[in-house]
Amino acid sequence: MSRLALVSAMHEELAAVLARMPDESKTVVAGREFWIGHWHGHEVVAVLSRIGKVAAATTTTVLIERFGVNRVVFTGVAGGLGPQVKVGDVVVADAFMQHDMDASPLFARHEVPLTGLSCFQVDASLREALLQSAALALQDVVQSLPRQDWLKIDLAQARVHHGLVISGDRFISQSADSAELQRRLPHALAVEMECAAMAQVCHDYGVPMAAVRTISDRADDAAHVDFAQFIHSIASSYSAAVLDRLLRHLPR
């Protein structure tokens, strides 16, 4: 039977997932709480990724080895890098790269040693399903959300993008660092701390993976401002709506 992993970055997002799994049961492995249940007829395992590449890779390995998941879907937030990517937008990943991987001169910069790869592609069919689900969910959520005057943006203008997402073990919160990433990796749309490592594990095991990231900031000097409020007010609603749309139509 197909078993789908729903991996969340934040507690608020996981709580929104668990609220839609009336029969969930908890198992603790490697200090992590894994919740097994059903959503729209799918058998799912929900868990927090934890923060950083090693922690996220451990979570993904346990999902595959211990719980036998054969598809992984990640939801979380990220900092926007691409000039067209605004706060409140959504990015569905096409591929992931570790922006801080550098084993040169033995290997090319960003290449993961002994793999021949610098980018890990997401599963094409899962990506397409997420793109469609995100577009519909964005319409649902934006219409139902109360005004967010503190955010100083018009959520009705929020868009869904797709492209390269980069990961590293550092929270990018200074404009100089953001500008350097944009210069070095101009095709990157967003930056975060987990998914490239998760994608590498899924690649090693041959498990399809896809991910969607809500843009919470521009990875600049204002990246920490109102982050908690953004997660509570917007990101958790986005994630739950995207997953609800996805699981309604995803083949079992």
Tell me the layout of helices and strands.
Elements: E1 3-8, H1 11-18, E2 25-29, E3 32-39, E4 42-48, H2 53-65, E5 71-80, E6 90-98, E7 119-121, H3 124-144, E8 160-167, H4 175-184, E9 188-192, H5 195-205, E10 209-217, H6 227-249
Helix pairs in contact: 1-6, 2-5, 3-6
Characterization of this structure:
This protein is of the alpha/beta class and 252 residues long. The chain has a single domain, classed as Rossmann fold (3-Layer(aba) Sandwich), CATH 3.40.50. The chain is built from 6 helices and 10 strands, in the order E-H-E-E-E-H-E-E-E-H-E-H-E-H-E-H. The protein has helices at 11-18, 53-65, 124-144, 175-184, 195-205, 227-249; strands at 3-8, 25-29, 32-39, 42-48, 71-80, 90-98, 119-121, 160-167, 188-192, 209-217. The chain has a 5-stranded mixed barrel. Helix 4 (175-184) links the parallel strand 8 (160-167) and strand 9. Helix 2 packs parallel to helix 5 and helix 3 (124-144) packs across helix 6. It is globular. 44% of the residues are buried. The model has no long low-confidence stretch (mean pLDDT 91).
Short description:
The protein contains 6 helices and 10 strands; from the N terminus they run E-H-E-E-E-H-E-E-E-H-E-H-E-H-E-H. The protein is globular and about 50 Å long.
Beta fraction:
25-35%
CATH fold topology: Rossmann fold
Low-confidence stretches: none
Structural class: alpha/beta
Order of helices and strands: EHEEEHEEEHEHEHEH
